[in-house]
Give the backbone structure.
Amino acid sequence: MKKSYRLPIVFIGVVIITLLILSLYSPSKRHETDQKLKVATTIFPLTDIAKNIGGDKVEVINLVPPGASPHTFEVTAEQARKLQGTRTIFSIGHGLDDWIINTTSALPRTNMLCISSNISLRDFKEHHSHDQEIDPKGSNNHEHEEVDPHYWLSIRNAKIISTNISEELQRLDPDNSDYYKINSQNYIKKLESLDSQIQTLLSNISNNEIMTMHNAWSYFAADYGLEIAATFEPFPGQEPTPKYLVELSKKAQEHNLKTFFSEPQLSNQILIPFLKDMGMSLSVLDPIGGLEKRDTYINLMMYNAEVIYEQLK
């Protein structure tokens, strides 16, 4: 009498199908399915804005570390490795972070997006407060740029930046388009509230003129009725000439300037003798942030507003 092998064959088939199903839903497969969209940003303010919009669906890599200047920064080999797999790198452009161009050229699958689209950019010539001696052979960053690239220091521009980043994330990840739209709308409401708070705070100052380390604050000044009376460095990293310092001293005296606003990313070494001679105090404005009490874009902008208020009230 022949034995029936039907039951064992059916059992083996069920086992095989079960193993196939389990393999499809294994942790490694779930990890691949749930993997976050990967993007990068050149400076911290963009990093924080992108994180607010991307939420838990986007991994954001920041390139310029807290305390470093984007004007003189160079991407390290370790950072270049971390950029592998990024879909888009968000940049400021216009001479501030052009060092990213060489990096993205080695990442053929990575798009670089300057986020200034739809922003009304200011010209450096519009707000130079006095004659400057510029070395025509200067080599660093935005010496010869007509456009002022510090546009993220306007909260009103940050609203446009938020929209630009949101649209790019929607393009890269259309399945989560509504998620990015809602996050962007909510974040823009927070920016509008912040703008109103700063407007109220700085409307109560007695003197609206300031002297800064370099000409990075024209967008912020234009938003809140401030006047940049003078800047210490013609451009970041370019030391002022003796003639320039004489003109700067005259400006400080003419405008009765008592406080100098420096920046944590730029050296104060050459500045100290000038301040002693002029009898001026020193305060710090931070255009980049990423440090304690400046650990979000919103906290950074409120910090700068409060520093100015305390000195000019």
Summary: The first strand starts at residue 37 and ends at 41.
